[in-house]
Every structure is written in C-alpha cells, then in structure tokens.
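Handover notes (outgoing to incoming on-call)

Open items:
1. soluble epoxide hydrolase: sequence verified, structure written out, both below. Nothing else pending on this one.
2. Nothing else urgent.
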Amino acid sequence: MEAAAGEVRHWNAAINGISIHVAELGPATGPAVLLLHGFPELWLSWRHQMAALAARGFRALAPDLRGYGDSAAAGDADDYSILHLAGDAVGLLDHLGVADAIVVGHDWGALVAWHLCLFRPDRVRAVVALAVPYLPRGPRSLMETFAAHGDGFYIVQFQEPGRAERAFARYDVVTVLNKFFSIESEDFTAPPGVEIIDSLEAPSSPPPWMTKEELAQYADKFQKSGFTGPLNYYRMFDMNWRLTAPWKGAKITVPAKFIVGDKDIGFKSGTEDYIKSEDFRSSVPGVEVAIIDGHHFIQQEHPERVNAEILSFLEKFTSKEA
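soluble epoxide hydrolase structure tokens:
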C-alpha cells in the first residue's frame, strides 16, 4: 500500500436524516478504517491513529458521532439508541460506497462498534475495541447494576434529563472537559448529595498527553453543541436493552481485538476479571487482548503503543492488498 500524507479533509453528509461530520485522512482507495470516539470526545481523539493509518495506506474515517462536534444533534433522547448509532455507521459506509470497513471504537465508540458487529457483520471486516469490552445482553438492563452503585454514580446522575447539564453549567467548558480527561481514580462515584462534576478535581493544565491548543479545540466544539446529545447516549441504556432482545445470546463473529489500559477507571473495577472469563471468551471467539500501560483515554495517552497494536492486527486482514 502506498503511503499517503497531507492535511485532514473535513466534510459533512446527510446520514439517516441528520448531518454527520467526518474527518478523513489517507488515500480514498485504501482499506477503510472507521474510527468511533467516546465521551466526551470528538474525531480529534483519533488524530494520532489517523496519521499512522494514512501513512500505511489506510483510509482513516473519523466522524463526530451524532450530537457531537460538527455533526447535528438529534431531536430527542430516543434518537440516540444503539440502533441509531450503528445505523449512522452503516449509512456512512453506504454514502461512501464502501462494502465493509475495519471498525475501531473507544468508550461509547467501542459499544457502537461491538453492536455494529452484531447487527451487520457483513459490513465489518474486523473490529478493534478500546476500553469497553463486549458485554452480551443479560437478563436485565445494565441500569439495574448501575443503580446499585447509588445516586452518586456518574451514569445514574446522567439519567435525569437536564441534571448533569445544570451541574456542568457551573463551570466553563474547558474545566468540564479537563475534569473528565484528567480522571485517574477507579471510583467514579460522588459522595452523597454531590454531583459528579463537582467531585472531580480541576487541574490547572491539561493532562500531559494533550496540549492547551487541543483542549481548546475540544472546548470550542462543546461550547457550541452543549452536552445534552452526548449525555443522551447514557439515557438510552434501558431502551437499548429492550431493543437488543433479538440478539440475546448472539456472538461476535468477526475478527476482534480488545485493548485496555491497566489503569483504566473500569479495569480494576470489573473489566480485568471479565476479559479473563469464559463469558467474554465465548461471546467473542478468538478475541485478541492487549493490556497496556495507561488510563482510560489510551489512544491519546500512549498513541505509539496503541498504533502498533492496531496496525499489527489490521495487517492480518489487508496484507493481500498491500
């Protein structure tokens, strides 16, 4: 595959009735790699991976998911279900005339990537998920598990429309984002009567893996879009459990790799044991697992290591096209 350099190209397309913004780098004829970000991020979270992929001849496509950045916000919380999110990925591939793609997702983007593998495995050549492993549909909604953590748990606080938005509004957007990007504690639960955003430390500068200019880029977009769209993803947990009933017991049948930081906020609180379990291994047969040094925002914190893990995996499925 011929190396490709150049500036990131930005464009918008009408996908499933809303405008989706996409950042693209690499040759249009290269194997497509769809990069799906998490919360509270943008296409920008993949800046290091896009450059590495393009240099190896891949076509890196990093959308702002619906409700984020320069993509449009949908009208209601119900418009942020996992079916809508996976549908946007399919719609984007259709718009480009791409039969299938390698899908790489982090955080919420990982959840979307896993479900895209369930719903439309014919459109996914391989999947790489960061931070969030595949969780097969259980006998009850995950919200029942989350609720057991109490009202201070961040996902519980995110459920009530407007609650987190009002709490976030007590701070400037730079501070809100920096609080989330700088999380290192395994306990993401506020004390009784305290909002999660108030309980998080407010560092005076961005984490070492992010420049002030990059943080300002994030803040500029969230200042315009607000946080309601991104928070609506969390408000769909119960709905998603109901919608995915037809896939109960389904397995991930496409080649898969899972990458997680050993200091990720979720790793020591359940992910570490789960990915070693038969439940995970049987639900994602043949999955490769890479546990590397780092926290939650691993692709930004340690891009070279993450790039190496992604590229070594992807070359198994693209070497014949080189």
